[in-house]
Amino acid sequence: MEDSLPRLEAEVVACRRCPRLVAYREQVARVKKPEFRHWDYWGRPVPGFGDPQARVLLVGLAPAAHGANRTGRMFTGDLPNGASAWLVRSLHRTGFANQPTSLHRDDGLRLQDAYVTAAVRCAPPQNRPAPEELDRCFSFLVREFALLPRVRVVVALGAVAFRTVLRLLVHLGLELPRPKPHFAHGAVYRFPGRVWGRPAPAVLCTYHPSRQNTQTGKLTARMLDSVFRRARRLVEEGP
Fold first, then answer.
1. What is the DSSP string of 39-50?
2. Phi, psi (5° rounding) for residue 110?
């Protein structure tokens, strides 16, 4: 049977490969946060979301326990100063989203030329997936990339996502330069060669828009906007 994004989504949502993550995501869905006590939490793995013709792919770390694990959509439902709010406001300001809010699955949000996914599809305790959990989720990212044929730029949201993106490119047969690329906010890596008959995507790094980074000023709105404006320029420039 030919693969497709709907088929992949169904497999992601049904996944129970990681006992620790299954237990945690379901516990969070049962206990809930007091302010979300009336919500029927999603409590399952969260599939990617966005434009199937996207030229920009965003790779994050994992769903937030009371954000995407509650709402069932990547970077959706955080509090006003949470990661999803920061990310979607920036995507809207830079023309990749039709609205500046991401509250729930039926809120009308549409991504334009962008697709959002994550290295791990279940909310992990302390936002720290184990190496074996990253390994088990990796095949989903490989298939997702194959099903997004127009991707020309990958934006890595944080160091773990960056390492996962590099692993993806190596898996697809790309030879990385030496010394090995390292994560730094705003860094851009362009690789020669092709993967699956298309030019290797450029990789653009940004600090993750977590509250730890945004509330301390390590990542500002201007810095994040600059990353997505750079992503726009890179796709317009072509390979």
1. S----S----EE
2. -130, 135
**Sheet containing strand 49-50, strands side by side:** 49-50, 114-118, 56-60, 153-157, 202-206, 188-189
Average pLDDT score over the chain: 95
The candidate with the shortest Cα–Cα distance to 48, out of 148, 166, 149, is 148
Residues 6 or more apart in contact with residue 35 via CB below 8 angstroms: none
Cα separation, 68 vs 155, whole angstroms: 19
Of the candidate ranges 65-69, 76-80, 115-119, the one whose mean pLDDT is the lowest: 76-80
Would the pTM count as exceeding 0.90? Answer: yes
C-alpha span between 180 and 178 (Å, rounded): 5
Q: How many domains does the chain have?
A: 1
Residue 155 domain boundaries: 5-237
- HSE-CB for 176 with a 13 A CA cutoff: 16
- Asked whether 68 and 76 are in contact (CB, 8 A), the reply is yes
Q: Among 80, 83, 81, which residue's Cα sits nearest to residue 63?
A: 83
pLDDT digits (tens, 9 = 90+) for 167-223: 999 999 999 988 889 999 999 999 988 888 889 999 999 999 999 999 999 999 999
Residue 52 in tokens: 């199937």
Q: What is the pLDDT of residue 80?
A: 77
CATH of the domain at 89: 3.40.470.10
Q: Give the DSSP per-residue string, 53-94.
A: T-SEEEEES---TTTHHHHSSTT-S--TTSHHHHHHHHHHHT
